[in-house]
Write a structure and sequence with these properties.
Strand content: 5-15%
Helix content: 40-55%
Mean pLDDT: 89
Strand order of the largest sheet: 1-3-2
Low-confidence stretches: none
Radius of gyration: 13 Å
Distance between the termini: 32 Å
Largest sheet: 3 strands, antiparallel
Number of strands: 3
Length: about 80
């Protein structure tokens, strides 16, 4: 797999995780990871969460509750 393909795959994974958190509005990290552990390692999962927290899309509470703080999902569907 080329570096470009790997980068695109990481973006797609991060986008899918972000969409899941956004749709749920908030979710304990310990509940989300078991659903993803068949497709990524814990280290990869933590990297994706760090990416989303760093991008200020997700907030992680000390209790590891993940809360969506980014823009709402498709707030103006007519403007696509």
């Amino acid at each position: 797999m080329s570096k470009t393909s790997e980068a695109i795959a990481v973006v797609h994974v991060a986008q899918a995780v972000a969409e899941a958190i956004r749709d749920l509005r908030q979710v304990p990290s310990g509940h989300l990871y078991p659903r993803l552990m068949g497709v990524m390692t814990l280290q990869q999962y933590e990297q994706v969460i760090e990416l989303l927290v760093g991008a200020r899309l997700v907030e992680r509470a000390p209790s590891h509750l993940l809360r969506w703080i980014g823009p709402a999902a498709n707030p103006n569907p007519e403007q696509q």
